[in-house]
Write a structure and sequence with these properties.
Strands 3-2-1-4-5-7-6 form a 7-stranded mixed beta sheet, with helices on both faces. 32% of the residues lie in helices and 21% in strands. The chain has a single domain, classed as Vaccinia Virus protein VP39 (Rossmann fold, 3-Layer(aba) Sandwich). Helix 5 links the parallel strand 2 and strand 3. Helix 1 packs antiparallel against helix 2 and helix 6 crosses helix 8. The chain is an alpha/beta fold. The radius of gyration is 18 Å and the shape is globular. This is Class I SAM-dependent methyltransferase. One of its GO terms (molecular function) is methyltransferase activity. Keywords: Methyltransferase, S-adenosyl-L-methionine, Transferase.
Length: 257
């Protein structure tokens, strides 16, 4: 599961017994060598899906970690890109790995996704692999924050993968992981919120709409389909109502389906 450059079992144990913030501070130097880092194949697929929706002017990578998604934004945004995360350790790695190049300026901001320090500043917000750190009851506040930082016509975009079914070994792996985390959080403080089976698409779409966002659901090609014919990977595109943002395409743009 982890390569030789990844964290040891002891390091993972220390991380898991810390808070989410401190745990990721500890994991940051080796994070990109773990399965928790969003694979490039996913980032590339999302970048291709974003291309016909742009160009975008200012982008935000929500819960940016070490900056993999932030680098994606530099290819689709013309003026500025911001990565926000509440782990100082993850941001430190992101800053070190950022490369100077022609394109939009990049800023790194330490902040909580549930209390973002921006207002109507972006026409594109993306997020990758972070939603397991939010409990279902936190989604309404999180999505309201995203709506607040979007300009009218701006979009909130993220991939969603279908969970494995009971016949797949991954189903039991994820179920077991969540069960262990629940026991850990019942017995140990501070809690470490990291669950794989709490971010359910139907509930997510409902909460996005309640937050005042119009949702389109596309398909990310290249990841195949499940036995029932449904796609394994979808792209959620939630748009704030209003005129298209400066430099963007008309609000009627859609993703491939």
């Amino acid at each position: 599961m982890f390569g030789p450059e990844g964290p040891t079992l002891r390091e993972l144990t220390v991380q898991a017994l810390s808070s989410v913030e401190h745990g990721y501070d500890l994991l940051a130097p080796k994070f990109d060598h773990t399965p928790f880092r969003t694979p490039d194949v996913v980032l590339d697929s999302v970048a291709r899906a974003l291309a016909p929706l742009g160009p975008f002017t200012d982008g935000l990578d929500l819960c940016c970690g070490t900056g993999a998604g932030t680098r994606l934004l530099t290819g689709v945004c013309r003026r500025s890109v911001t990565g926000v995360d509440f782990s100082a350790g993850m941001l430190d790695i992101a800053r070190r790995r950022a490369t100077a190049a022609d394109g939009p300026g990049v800023a790194w901001v330490r902040g909580d996704a549930r209390a973002l320090p921006f207002t109507a500043a972006f026409d594109l917000v993306v997020s990758f692999g972070a939603f397991g750190h939010f409990l279902p009851r936190e989604l309404p506040g999180l999505f309201t924050q995203v709506r607040t930082v979007l300009r009218p016509g701006g979009r909130f975009v993220f991939p969603v993968f279908a969970p494995p079914g009971p016949a797949h070994p991954g189903f039991w792996t994820l179920l077991g992981f969540d069960a262990v985390m629940r026991v850990r959080n019942a017995l140990w403080r501070p809690p470490f919120v990291m669950y794989y089976r709490t971010f359910r698409l139907s509930a997510v779409l409902r909460e996005l709409e309640r937050a005042g966002l119009t949702v389109e659901l596309g398909v990310l090609p290249g990841f195949g389909r499940r036995a029932d014919g449904s796609p394994r990977a979808r792209l959620v595109v939630a748009r704030r109502a209003g005129a298209a943002p400066l430099g963007g395409q008309p609000a009627a743009g859609s993703v491939n389906s």
